[in-house]
């Protein structure tokens, strides 16, 4: 019998998720991180950065639909949208389902993540060649501070808050994003697990409250992320969640619906206390 190969993500010092690997499809050390693509029975192809699962074929749609459609359905006219991080292209794919979007900017520091997604996850990266998309291979913090102006929605689709991504999770960056947003601008940022990272959720909420007049938190169930319960911080210069505007176009989704969106802002007490 052949030897079984498993990949294990240490989600904390006490918790790990293990997947049986059918094949290792790609492995390299980029200028920024260790990049690994494996094929599994349970979740299909999996993109892993520095030992942490970023996206899988099986459940990626949950995260990408909820990080994109929530702000775009609340903003009154989301014409210009930027994604900070998100080199797999999933958030861009969902953004492009909104016909009013005229420009979608992907700002990813590691070009090799984009290349790996194009090669191994073509269904996720499907929108990257759309004429409305501009790809910036650069540092997202610098790009927001120096180049971004008058955006309607900015989505922070970052890795975990370690290394360079650490500075994407605090008030100084949120102030920079607010300056890059137009009058009705909305920021949404992934903010980790409320069970394993409650202090990070609090930190994001405090940072948003210091900058935006409208702040909230919503959740989604992403199976491969730590504990499966994931949060997203919402900061707005005006438009209020949770209800989508009535003229949102109909498009195909597998998780997001207007009703799911409204329900996502209804928080269990143990999550709601992290917003105070």
CATH architecture of the largest domain: 3-Layer(aba) Sandwich
CATH class of the largest domain, named Alpha Beta
| Biggest sheet overview | 7 strands, mixed
The average pLDDT is 95
Distance between the termini: 55 Å
Strand order of the largest sheet: 8-7-6-9-10-12-11
Number of domains: 2
Percentage of helical residues?
A: 25-40%
Assigned CATH superfamily of the largest domain: Vaccinia Virus protein VP39
What is the string of SSEs from the N terminus onward?
EEEEEHEHEHEHEHEHEEHH
Radius of gyration: 18 Å
Q: Please identify the structural class as seen in this structure.
A: alpha/beta
Low-confidence segments: none
CATH topology of the largest domain: Rossmann fold
**Total number of helical segments?**
8
**Range of strand content:** 25-35%
């Amino acid at each position: 019998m052949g030897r079984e190969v498993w990949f294990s993500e240490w989600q904390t010092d006490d918790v790990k998720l293990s997947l049986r690997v059918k094949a290792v499809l790609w492995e390299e050390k980029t200028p920024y991180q260790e990049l690994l693509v494996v094929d599994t029975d349970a979740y299909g192809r999996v993109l892993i950065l520095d030992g942490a699962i970023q996206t899988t074929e099986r459940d990626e749609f949950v995260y990408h639909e909820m990080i994109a459609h929530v702000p775009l359905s609340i903003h009154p006219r989301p014409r210009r949208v930027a994604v900070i991080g998100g080199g797999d292209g999933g958030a861009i794919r969902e953004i492009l389902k909104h016909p009013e979007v005229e420009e979608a900017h992907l700002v990813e520091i590691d070009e090799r993540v984009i290349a790996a997604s194009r090669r191994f996850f073509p269904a996720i990266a499907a929108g990257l060649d759309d004429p409305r998309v501009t790809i910036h291979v650069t540092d997202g913090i610098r790009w927001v501070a120096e180049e971004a102006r008058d955006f309607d929605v900015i989505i922070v689709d970052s890795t975990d808050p370690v290394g360079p991504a650490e500075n994407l999770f605090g008030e100084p960056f949120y102030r920079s994003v607010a300056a890059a947003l137009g009058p009705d601008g909305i920021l949404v940022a992934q903010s980790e697990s409320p069970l394993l990272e409650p202090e990070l959720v609090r930190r994001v909420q405090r940072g948003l409250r210091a900058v935006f007049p409208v702040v909230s938190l919503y959740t989604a169930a992403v199976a491969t992320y730590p504990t499966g319960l994931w949060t997203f911080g919402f900061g707005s210069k005006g438009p209020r969640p949770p209800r989508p505007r009535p003229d949102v176009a109909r498009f195909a989704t597998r998780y997001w619906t207007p009703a799911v969106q409204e329900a996502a802002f209804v928080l269990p007490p143990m999550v709601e206390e992290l917003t105070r």
